[in-house]
């Protein structure tokens, strides 16, 4: 591997994790095999004892997956990484490895929906208690920390309202209480936020989003800082079984090569779209880490190298206005997920969170007019024109229906 301490992040994106292979390919071959031959019984034995280097069985480790894991550790500035079959597999594996019955977890209130459901419904069955608090307010975290707290799980910026949590302050508080900090870095990617620089212990990602970047793979990863945590998480992953397929690892590794470029373009486009939306008369408010109006703008400046591509905004006119906007966009695609090259728009109140009911939605910060945009890498003028015509359609409908 040609990367060293002085290699820039942009170059690491291109070269990290690429090893030497038979016949000299410049990208890792896809080792589409479930198992690997031993040279002899004693060779098999020494592989199992960990005395020889090599591969045994693809749930345990596979060369194509290992190439991606090496790249992820390098880009995130961690010790080692583990690739998982989805972001949720990564989150489940990481938390399972870190807690036991009787422990307590603190989790950001603004967090990816299935993560909060996992903690509240699955971990609670095994007597792991969870407190959901607004982690962008450190006092709220201090108020619930107790001797049993073993993990503080932070998503920053958080889903869907983009609150930014101070990772340095949370890590300090956690370590004084002998707890570990796990950060979901999906919204920023290592190109824009490096949680280990702020004392965080474990980083998880949905690689389905920016890391892969092309909306064609579901994948996740865990990055750790030390060998002890690595061994424990590796053992847990092997037992839970949520590993990544070699072909999907190959695709994510390909996506990583343009991560730096893509994050620059996502950020630049999103900044222009956020400023456009903030001035629009049909828009109540815009949340975007790059806007001075963001409540934790200063923490964002300390923690982020750029602002990424996710914008949340509140449309005037509630559910109906949101529906009309969704049905009127042409270039922007109407779909869940985020972080791909194409711009996606989502209106939780009429789609993903429809069945939740207005009251529970509002406790979760999901107002009727809330729209989330994952800004892609298209030409920004095309994006603005599309939003402009769709907002005009909203205005016309609202006038007709009054
Ligand atoms: C999508 C997402 C996840 C879950 O990842 P999957 O790959 O869909 O399992 C977790 N956290 C965040 C912030 C996400 O956006």
Folded structure, characterized:
With 402 residues, the chain is an alpha/beta fold. It folds into 2 domains: 217 residues, Aspartate Aminotransferase, domain 2 (3-Layer(aba) Sandwich); 142 residues, Aspartate Aminotransferase, domain 1, CATH 3.90.1150.10. Helix content is 40%, strand content 14%. The protein has a 7-stranded mixed sheet with strand order 1-7-6-5-4-2-3, sandwiched between helices. Strands 8-9-12-11-10 form a 5-stranded mixed sheet. Helix 3 packs parallel to helix 9, helix 4 crosses helix 8 and helix 12 packs across helix 14. The radius of gyration is 22 Å and the shape is globular. The mean pLDDT is 96. The site of pyridoxal-5'-phosphate has 15 residues, from helix 4.
In a nutshell, what does this entry contain?
By secondary structure, this protein is an alpha/beta fold. It folds into two domains: 9-30 and 62-256, 3-Layer(aba) Sandwich (Aspartate Aminotransferase, domain 2); 259-400, Aspartate Aminotransferase, domain 1, CATH 3.90.1150.
Taken together, the total number of domains comes to 2
Low-confidence stretches: none
Q: What is the count of helical runs? A: 14
How many DSSP-defined strands?
12
- How are strands sequenced across the largest beta sheet? 1-7-6-5-4-2-3
The first-level CATH class name of the largest domain: Alpha Beta
Order of helices and strands: HHHEHEHEHEHEEEHHHEHEHEEHEH
| Main structural class | alpha/beta
Helix content: 40-55%
CATH topology of the largest domain: Aspartate Aminotransferase, domain 2
Strand percentage = 5-15%
Biggest β-sheet strands, sense, barrel = 7 strands, mixed
Give the name of the CATH superfamily of the largest domain. Type I PLP-dependent aspartate aminotransferase-like (Major domain)
Radius of gyration, CA atoms, in whole angstroms: 22 Å
């Amino acid at each position: 591997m040609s990367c060293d301490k002085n290699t820039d992040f942009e170059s690491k994106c291109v070269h990290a994790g690429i090893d030497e292979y038979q016949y000299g390919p410049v990208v890792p071959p896809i080792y589409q095999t479930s198992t690997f031959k031993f040279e002899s019984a004693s060779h098999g034995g020494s592989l199992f004892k960990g005395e020889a280097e090599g591969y045994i069985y693809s749930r345990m480790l596979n060369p194509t997956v290992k190439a991606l894991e090496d790249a992820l550790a390098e880009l995130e500035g961690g010790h080692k990484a583990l690739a998982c079959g989805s972001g949720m597999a990564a989150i489940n594996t990481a938390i399972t490895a870190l807690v036991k019955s009787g422990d307590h977890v603190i989790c950001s209130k603004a967090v990816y929906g299935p993560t909060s459901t996992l903690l509240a419904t699955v971990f609670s069955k095994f007597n792991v208690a969870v407190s959901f608090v607004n982690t962008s307010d450190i006092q709220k975290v201090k108020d619930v920390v107790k001797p049993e707290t073993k993990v503080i799980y932070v998503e920053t910026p958080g889903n869907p309202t983009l609150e930014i949590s101070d990772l340095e302050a949370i890590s300090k508080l956690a370590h004084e209480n002998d707890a570990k900090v796990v950060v979901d870095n999906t919204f920023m990617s290592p190109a824009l936020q490096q949680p280990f620089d702020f004392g965080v212990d474990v980083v998880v990602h949905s690689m389905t989003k920016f890391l892969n970047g092309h909306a064609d793979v579901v994948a996740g990863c865990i990055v750790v800082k030390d060998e002890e945590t690595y061994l424990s998480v590796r053992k847990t992953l092997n037992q839970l079984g949520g590993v990544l397929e070699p072909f999907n690892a190959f695709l994510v590794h390909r996506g990583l090569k343009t991560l730096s470029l893509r994050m620059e373009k996502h950020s630049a486009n999103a900044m222009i779209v956020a400023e456009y939306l903030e001035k629009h008369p049909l828009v109540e408010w815009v949340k975007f880490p790059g806007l001075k109006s963001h409540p934790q703008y200063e923490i964002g400046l300390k923690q982020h190298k750029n602002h990424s591509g996710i914008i949340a905004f509140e449309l005037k006119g509630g559910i109906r206005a949101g529906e009309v906007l969704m049905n009127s966009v042409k270039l922007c695609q109407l779909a869940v997920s985020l972080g791909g090259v194409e711009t996606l728009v989502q209106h939780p109140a009429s789609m993903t969170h429809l069945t939740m009911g207005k009251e529970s939605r509002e406790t979760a910060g999901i107002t009727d007019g809330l729209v989330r945009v994952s800004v892609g890498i298209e030409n920004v003028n095309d994006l603005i024109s599309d939003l402009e015509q769709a907002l005009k359609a909203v205005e016309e409908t609202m006038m007709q229906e009054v």
